[in-house]
């Protein structure tokens, strides 16, 4: 229990309060009765949730840096929504989440995260409230990374169902990810004829100059350096997304011969 408490204690930033904090409290309580974390018990987490509800609608300054643990917790909560979107929990999707966390954080930390995830899966999540909390504290680049990961989960079983895609689209909207960015990320997981153009957020009618301009814009928007605050483990994952943009550009270049 000590290792789990240590991991979770280090993860608590903005995710302690509000709806995400309540979900964490429920998840931990589902396998540890009366568990307390650094002086915060379920009643205090519920209080924080109520306090956020009372202050909703007031503009609060966005947190300049999102801690790695906050991103981790947010990812687990949203992943649970997507995995349950088609009415079942597919083992391949669970394996994808586990392996992703092993790759990023190592086996010990991943085991703690997945233990919490098993509790989160039992909780009904208010997607809108969770996303409101995330977007108040997380940068646009980090929110783009969340959406990218969610598509990876849904594709883990080889097929993105309509219900999964609809859930991710809804999440993206609540996170203030515009339609162009959403379509671009989605195209990274489908081998459609025009996927390369969609990834660069342009159409086939774009001129060569417009293609080059679009690539520079996308490379800047999705550059891994924008996630430096989250730590080196997230830079590696961001590089995979960045590679998709580079591959899309190279494909169009080869087709057009410039």
Describe the structure.
The protein has 258 residues and is an all-alpha fold. It folds into two domains: 1-53 and 65-177, no CATH class; 187-258, DnaJ domain (Helix Hairpins, Orthogonal Bundle). It is 67% helix and 0% strand. The termini are far apart.
How far apart lie the N and C ends?
59 Å
The total count of helices amounts to 13
Question: H/E order of the elements?
Answer: HHHHHHHHHHHHH
| Secondary structural class | mainly alpha
The dominant shape is elongated
Count of separate structural domains? 2
Biggest sheet overview: none
Q: Report helical residue fraction.
A: 55-70%
**Number of beta strands:** 0
Mean pLDDT: 82
Radius of gyration equals 19 Å
Strand content: under 5%
Architecture blueprint of SSEs:
Layout: H1 2-11, H2 18-29, H3 42-55, H4 68-83, H5 91-105, H6 107-120, H7 127-137, H8 140-154, H9 162-174, H10 179-187, H11 195-199, H12 208-221, H13 232-256
Domain J: 195-257
Region (Disordered): 48-67
Protein name: Molecular chaperone DjlA
Which properties best describe this structure?
258 residues, mainly alpha, 2 domains, 67% helix, DjlA_DnaK_co-chaperone, J_dom_sf
Describe what is shown at a glance.
The chain has 258 residues and is mainly α. It is built from 13 helices and no strands. It has helices spanning 2-11, 18-29, 42-55, 68-83, 91-105, 107-120, 127-137, 140-154, 162-174, 179-187, 195-199, 208-221, 232-256.
């Amino acid at each position: 229990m000590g290792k789990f408490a240590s991991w979770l204690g280090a993860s608590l930033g903005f995710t302690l309060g509000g709806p995400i904090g309540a979900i964490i409290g429920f998840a931990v309580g589902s396998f540890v009765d009366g568990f307390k974390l650094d002086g915060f018990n379920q009643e205090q987490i519920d209080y924080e949730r109520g306090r956020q509800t009372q202050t909703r609608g007031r503009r609060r300054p966005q947190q300049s840096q999102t801690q790695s643990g906050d991103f981790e917790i947010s990812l687990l909560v949203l992943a649970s929504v997507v995995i349950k979107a088609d009415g079942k929990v597919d083992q391949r999707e669970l394996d994808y989440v586990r392996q992703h966390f092993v790759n990023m954080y190592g086996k010990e930390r991943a085991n703690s995260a997945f233990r919490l995830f098993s509790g989160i899966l039992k909780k009904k999540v208010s997607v809108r409230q969770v996303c409101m909390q995330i977007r108040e504290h997380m940068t646009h680049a980090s929110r783009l990374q969340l959406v990218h990961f969610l598509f990876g989960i849904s594709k883990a079983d080889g097929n993105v169902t309509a219900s999964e895609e609809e859930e991710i689209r809804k999440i993206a909207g609540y996170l203030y990810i515009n339609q162009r960015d959403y379509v671009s990320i989605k195209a990274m997981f489908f081998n459609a004829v025009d996927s390369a153009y969609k990834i660069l957020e342009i159409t086939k009618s774009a001129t060569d100059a417009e293609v080059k301009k679009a690539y520079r814009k996308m490379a800047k928007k999705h550059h891994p350096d924008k996630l430096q605050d989250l730590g080196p483990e997230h830079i590696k994952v961001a590089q995979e997304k960045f590679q998709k943009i580079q591959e899309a550009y190279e494909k169009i270049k080869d087709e057009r011969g410039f």
